[in-house]
Amino acid sequence: MLLEDDMSFNDVVVVGPLAVDMSQNSITFKDRTAYLGPLRTHLLGYLCKHVNQVVGRDDLSEAVWGRSVSDHTINQHISQLRKVLTTVNNTELTIATIPKKGYIARCESVTELNLLKPEAKLEHPKAVLFSDPDTCEQIQSAKAEGELKYLEVFSDVDELHQRLMSHEFQAVVVDAELEDYQGLELIKEIRTGNTLASSDVAIVSLSSEASKPLLGFNVLLDVQGLVIKPLNLETLDTKLKAAVAARFKLKPNAAYDLVPTRLETKVSVNLAAACASN
After folding, report:
1. What is the model's pTM?
2. Could you tell me if 234 and 181 are in contact, meaning their C-beta atoms sit under 8 angstroms apart?
3. CATH of 122-257, one of 3.40.50.720, 3.90.1150.10, 3.40.50.2300, 3.40.50.1100
4. Quick check: bond before 252 cis, omega within 30?
5. For the domain 12-116, what is the CATH code?
6. Which pLDDT tens digit goes with each residue over 24-54?
């Protein structure tokens, strides 16, 4: 029987101290992050969604590839995932082969309840958002109805910089599609210490699509999450909590300085298509 796969592009699957970010195609364990690529992200995310349960090969093929694939193909990708889990010094999650049955992602400290509701373990982070006036108005309307009360919104970059002086915030949400690359420049300025915000503050970016240049920019600038527009407030809430929970080590300023902010090429990354083509 096929296990239900209700993952979306914006999901972050949390298993103990490990998080699989579907939008960033990455895995984070404590303070280390590794890029997986779309297919292996979906594969690991699906296994983690069903942590401590045996997943059959047929179910895995259908959920991840959308078609039947050979045992050799699945074995290859499982082997690569195991290497990545070792690379990030993961000691919590393992992927075991169950002969004649399939695979199981094991994490003894995690129950099904903890996996399905990771947000129950995380408090609302205090955050600021920098975007266009229309997006800010949408969020202000939601705040008036009692949602996202912990989030302050700004469409003026000077006002935002003044607010960042307070150091009260755990996360910054930045629209990557603002004119004149204002959003991307702001992310770079934060990471290089050219704002009054903490250089290691959690950052989540907004975009109408997940272009390859933007995904690369996010990885290089240590952006903890990506939310696809039109904005879903529940998704934004979940991404903010996951971003604040993730830990990373700042690189030297020179590494951030070299990252370009003028991302001209728009190449959409479609998760389903990527999985089907592998």
Report:
1. 0.59
2. no
3. 3.40.50.2300
4. no
5. 1.10.10.10
6. 788 888 777 888 888 898 899 899 888 888 9
